[in-house]
Amino acid sequence: MVIDSHVHVGESLFGYKLTVEELLSCMKECKIDKAIISPVKPRNYHFEPENDFIANCVKEFPDKFIGFGRIDPWQKEKALEEIDRCIKTLKFKGLFLHPWEESFLVNGKLLYPVMEKAMEYNIPVMISGGHVRVSEPLQIGDIAGEFPKVNIIATSGGQINICGMALYDAENMLTENKNVYLETSGIYRQDFIENMIRKLGSFRVLYGSNAPVMDIRYEIMRATTARISDEEREDILGRSISKLVKDEE
Amino acid sequence: MIIDAHAHIQELIGSSWNSPPERLISLMDRAGIDKAIVMTYSDMPGSDSELLRYVAEATQEYPARLIGFARLNPGYGPLSEELLVLAITKMGMKGLKLHPVGYGIHPGNEVTIKLIKKAAEFNAPTLFHCGDEEYTLPLQIAEAAKKCSEATIILGHMGGYFHVQDAIRVAEKYPNIILETSAMPYPYLIRETVDRIGPERVLFASDGPGCDPLLERKKVELANLSKKEIELIFSENIIKILEKVKKY
Predict the structure, then answer these.
(1) Do B210 and A222 touch (CB under 8 A)?
(2) For residue A84, what are the domain limits?
(3) A162 or A249, higher pLDDT
(4) Looking at CA atoms only, how far is residue B213 from chain A in angstroms?
(5) What is this structure's pTM?
(6) Would you say residue A15 lies in a domain?
(7) Across residues B3-7, what is the average pLDDT?
(8) How confident is the model at residue A248 (pLDDT cuts 50, 70, 90)?
């Protein structure tokens, strides 16, 4: 079972877009069985209709998609209500947060009530990681340390730095916070993924493409070409995320 | 023929950055890459005075596979220039590598310009680390390209994760700027680059062995390029640049 743990469906305010049909055809081409899908930020800035749209996609293709809800913590009380709706009504399995597109500090007090909700529902929180000033590796480590019972998926391993200067912090953050999982999209460098599989265990590493920002056809190769054992590859290509979202049946 | 225009060798025992030439060559074999331009991670002059010799010895040991570039800190002025001349005239090196994050000097600074101009006297290109950090941004390196119009300036990583549009912009403006594909994760931006500046000023590179040359090769192959564009980007463009470098 191959699962892409990070895909956005819809048309983003920031120009990128992906339709369900395009995603399904790309999944077929790349031999991906399932994808975790979450909303883009739409032109009207409202996540509620986008969450409905994602829920409908899951309803239409229940064996292909797992839904994650997206909220803007700046909406405060309304965001918390939307989390309730995402989990109780829309039956989502997790939350997606984008500190860069929603302009909030991932370890700021603003996020604490959101994390408390995630803890209450026992759902994982995927965080778009590695953005300067808002979701740097040590900032993700800080919020993970405050909420050790919440599983956090740090996209790009929490570091997007082509200089390699964030690798040290990301490795320490992942080592110290056992509730943080490394998602592989866009990662600098490939040996970081391979080393982290050895150091953290393959169940802490998840293949994700971050499509359509990134290219599924390329991103999946980070997992398929990695110099790791077959067992480890099966973990990062599907088993790890499956356990995390309790999608094992 | 595939030539990797940017890869690394250096002994750093006990670190994940440890990159003896054999580590790179085994990845090149796996990826079907014939040759790689190699440089160290550290600058000269610096803590290890043997670094230039290390690159020279590796290229002598693997002449069919490795081509050396001298990675230098321009801040030492005449000494940096002396090392560059030595590297090119006595050690077989073909270019200069600058990584301003390592030494903290702006690409447009006078000492950097002098060193780039010295390289250009030998028709040797200058490869800059060009990513998302201060002193490595495309618009900052463009100042060097403007001041050294006779020099070939290669933007390694073509602007990194967030500055690719700037890299294409400055390449549109300055004909002596070349973009290099390593580690930048977006295949479609390679296509856009070729559309905007032509296929003659784009080079394939891996930034191996930390980045996997196989993966980096696949990325370029996913960019919807024609057969001719592929040939230019994978080898013909860099061959043309290296052929111009004065021989000793």
Answers:
(1) no
(2) 3-244
(3) A162
(4) 10
(5) 0.96
(6) yes
(7) 98
(8) low
Q: B161–A162: do the CB atoms touch at under 8 Å? A: yes
Which residue on chain A is closest to B207 by alpha carbon? A189
Question: B90 in a domain, yes or no?
Answer: yes
In a domain, A249, yes or no: no
Give domain status of residue B182, yes or no: yes
Task: Answer yes or no: is B248 within a domain.
Answer: no
Interface test with A, best of B215, B218, B221 (most A CBs within 10 A): B215
Residue of A nearest to B157 (CA): A162
The CATH number linked to A80 is 3.20.20.140
Q: Name the closest residue on chain B to residue A212, using Cα atoms.
A: B186
Structural domain includes residue A51: yes
Interface subset of A 150-189, CB within 8 angstroms of B: 160-165, 167, 185-186, 188-189
- pLDDT exceeds cutoff 90 at B203: yes
Q: Report, as an integer, the average pLDDT of A192-218.
A: 98
> Within an 8 Å CB–CB cutoff, is residue A192 touching chain B?
yes
Q: Residue B212 is part of which domain span?
A: 3-243
Q: What percent of chain B has pLDDT over 90?
A: 98
Sequence length of chain A is 249
**Is some CB atom of chain B closer than 8 A to the CB atom of A222?**
yes
B47 — pLDDT class (breaks 50, 70, 90): confident
Q: How many structural domains does chain B have?
A: 1
Of the candidates B104, B101, B156, the one whose C-alpha atom is nearest the C-alpha of residue B126 is: B156
Global ipTM: 0.95
pLDDT in tens, A13-41: 999 999 999 999 999 999 999 999 999 99
The nearest CA of chain B is from the CA of A226 a distance in Å of 9
CATH for B78? 3.20.20.140
Count of structural domains within chain A: 1
> Which residues in chain B have their CB less than 8 angstroms from residue A219's CB?
185
